[in-house]
Amino acid sequence: MENKTKPNYNVNWMGHSLKNAFADKYYSIGTIVYSGKNLNYNGTFDFEHKDNNYLAYHLDQFQKEKYVLDLRTYNKNDFTSELLLGMENNGNTAEFIAKDRFDGLLFIKHSGLPKLIKKE
Question: What's the pTM value of the predicted model, to 2 decimals?
Answer without folding.
Answer: 0.85
